[in-house]
Amino acid sequence: MASEWSTNKRLKKDQEKLLFGLKVELSSNLEYISDRKVEIYEFAIRINQLVKENGQNPSFFIVPFKEKPFAARIPGFPGLGKSALNRAMFEAAIYSNLFPDLNIELIKQLSVSYSIQHNFLDSRAKIERKLEYIDSETTYREVMDIMYEYLDEFYKTHERLESEYQKTIELIENSLN
To answer: What is the pTM of this model?
Structure first.
């Protein structure tokens, strides 16, 4: 009986540590993507202005992109950001065998958040591969298409990821209380 009590007490303590770690990890990811949102929004405005200013000139879109440095052709490009968001605590949770004792709603929400995070990073990697293949034959129009795809993917996935992170953090906080 004392052994079972001790085991349950240790399990509860381990679950609290795990939940706290997940909360810190998700909060860090949420802060990062929220900060990126402002940069990306400002970049979207600059891209639209650039197209409006040069859109009447047909040669603007067929000029090979490599004629000028990337920064000169796409002013203010904030880059693609981190190639990975934190997920070490989630991986630890999977392998720690502590999930079965957690609230089922929390487990589902964790899975949703980390699945969307995976999709977000996968989209980023696809755009990165496209940017890597820019060569002397690539036109400005093709690069602009990549930039619009990047912005579209970022906003579609970003809003959902931000929302799911917030829901997950709230569930974790409720579980810790």
So the answer is: 0.81
